[in-house]
Every structure is written in structure tokens, then in C-alpha cells.
Design goal:
- By secondary structure, the protein is an alpha/beta fold.
- The chain folds into two domains: 67 residues, Ribosomal Protein L25, Chain P (Beta Barrel), CATH 2.40.240.20; 156 residues, SPOUT methyltransferase, trefoil knot domain (Alpha/beta knot, 3-Layer(aba) Sandwich), CATH 3.40.1280.10.
- It contains six helices and eleven strands.
- The strands form two sheets. It has a six-stranded parallel sheet with strand order 8-7-6-10-9-11, sandwiched between helices. It has a five-stranded mixed sheet with strand order 1-3-4-5-2.
- Strand 3 and strand 4 form a beta hairpin.
- Helix 2 runs parallel beside helix 3 and helix 2 packs parallel to helix 6.
């Protein structure tokens, strides 16, 4: 079995004693059932990973860090603007995108989004960040993506302006991902189940967003962002 992997609220780039928070300690003690002196890894979600050993079997659990590793962020930082999806598909999208290496995930309600979270944004964000954290640990990433929510297309346009290049995923486009030379900051726009409306497409393309074809198959909204990211990171 692989050594357990946990988040630590704070630790520095040096040998030290790290204390896990209540939630992580509970998981370590009651789910993973760690033993005294067992080898574990911890990360701060910002590039640092520590290898250490359990020195205190209680809540809060303590780990003595013996080695520190610094994980470089991907050369290409990818932001995905993900339209809200129905059912648990938004949750699935967060999980997949975290596992493949997305830097930032931004949800927003596109015109054709069936799901509605008005008045429940805080609850949804809490769930998505918990899913992202779990996926980060499962995939043993050292960088935890930030998950946020925007309500207006104007806010998305402001975010687009801050990226060097932005793409709208479109199966009908003749502009292919495999032909791109990507800069360090890339943004992908992923539509809902019914795709973006023509008005939305015009708004985005008028802002400089390029339609982009990422392959020969039509992907679900829940997997398109992850597939685009995986392909982009391996160009």
C-alpha cells in the first residue's frame, strides 16, 4: 500500500513537526488507521511535499518531517471556465480536472446550464473544494487548484483579458489543439450540456477567444475540460 498523503495547513521548507488539522487527523486515525512511526507524506497544496513519520497518535496528529521536496508548477498554467452541469457532473468535472493538473477552476451559469445554484453558492463551493482536495491527495498532486464561482459573463470576460490566450472548446472548429504553441497561461471555456448559445459564442469571440477542436469525438461537459488540459500539458 502506498504511504498516506495529507494536507497540512502550514509547514516550511525545513525539517519540523507538522500538526494536521482536526479533519485530516480524523481521517488519518479512523479511516487510514495510521500506526505510530508510520511513513506519510504531507503537502501544503502550494508546491511543498514533506516525507515524515507519525510521532503522535491523537487528534491532532503530529508528523515529524524528515525530507522536503519542492514540486514545480506546470509550465503551462491552465484555467478552466466550466459551465454549470446537471446532477453530479459538476462534481465529476472538478475531480477529473484536479487529477490531470488544472491550475484554476471557475464555474459559472451559462445560458443553457440546467443546474441552478442561486442562493446555494457557498454550499456548492465548499463541496467542490472538498472534492478537489480529495482528488489532489488521491493523485498525489502538490498543487491544489483554486475553485471559484462567478455569476456574470462580464466577470468571465475580465478573467479572459488576464490570460495570454483563451479557447472555447468547439467540436465544429477547424482550429486544432495539436497545432497550437501554448504560452504559460491558457484558459479553456467549457459549455453546458446544450453547448454555448450563439450570443455567448459571439460575446467570447468578440473578446478574442478562439474556437478550438480538441479531438475527433464529442465529449461531455464533465470531461471536456480535463481532456483538454491533459492534452495541452503533453503537447
Amino acid at each position: 500500500m502506498r504511504s498516506a498523503y495529507f494536507f497540512a495547513d502550514f509547514f516550511e521548507n525545513k525539517p519540523q513537526i507538522v500538526t494536521l488539522n482536526e479533519k485530516e487527523s480524523h481521517h488519518a486515525l479512523n479511516v487510514r488507521r495510521l500506526a505510530l512511526a508510520e511513513e506519510v507524506y504531507v503537502t501544503n497544496g502550494s508546491g511543498l511535499v514533506g516525507l515524515g513519520y507519525v510521532t503522535k497518535l491523537a487528534n491532532p496528529l503530529e508528523i515529524e518531517i524528515k525530507e522536503i521536496f519542492e514540486s514545480d508548477v506546470n509550465n503551462t498554467k491552465i484555467t478552466v471556465v466550466q459551465s454549470l452541469l446537471k446532477g453530479e457532473r459538476s462534481d465529476f468535472a472538478v475531480e477529473l480536472m484536479t487529477e490531470v493538473g488544472v491550475h484554476r477552476i471557475i464555474f459559472w451559469p451559462a445560458n443553457r446550464s440546467i443546474a441552478k445554484i442561486s442562493g446555494k453558492e457557498e454550499k456548492a463551493l465548499k463541496r467542490w473544494n472538498q472534492i478537489s482536495e480529495a482528488a489532489c491527495k488521491q493523485s498525489r498532486r502538490a498543487w491544489l487548484p483554486k475553485v471559484s464561482y462567478e455569476t456574470k459573463i462580464e466577470s468571465i470576460l475580465d478573467i479572459i483579458k488576464k490570460n495570454k490566450i483563451s479557447f472555447l472548446l468547439d467540436y465544429d472548429s477547424n482550429n486544432y489543439l495539436k497545432d497550437q504553441q501554448l504560452p504559460e497561461d491558457v484558459l479553456f471555456l467549457v459549455g453546458p450540456e446544450g453547448g454555448f448559445s450563439e450570443a455567448e459564442k459571439k460575446t467570447f469571440t468578440d473578446a478574442g477567444v478562439q474556437p478550438l477542436n480538441i479531438g475527433d469525438t464529442v465529449l461531455r461537459g464533465s470531461s471536456a475540460g480535463a481532456v483538454a488540459t491533459a492534452l495541452a500539458l503533453n503537447l
